[in-house]
Structure prediction request, 109 residues.
Amino acid sequence: MKAAYAISSISPDLITIKLDGNNLNPSNMETLKPYLNMVDAVAMGPGIGLNPETVDFVKLCVEEVEKAGKPLLLDADGLKAFAMFERPLKVPLVLTPHSGEYSILTGET
Prediction:
């Protein structure tokens, strides 16, 4: 939540959604669900961390994004979390791994 307030203070053009908890967690999805209908795509990853509750959030969020039929971009920690439960998706998906993240996703160098 602290990051959301800091980002909001930079410019009134930057819109943030304040979420409960120290990490992204599954309960945050209830707050975010209404916004899925307002966006054209979802990007997730850099800086979210790999706390177990955040990994659970990523899994739930990916499921909700898929239900909403929105394209999804995963990068950085979002990719690493996705690698823990990876499954085929029925929405356009963009993965942006560097070589280390590619290895985590595929098991290959």
About this structure: Residues 8 and 15 are 6 Å apart (CA to CA). Residues 23-106 form one domain. The first strand starts at residue 42 and ends at 44. The longest helix spans residues 52-68.
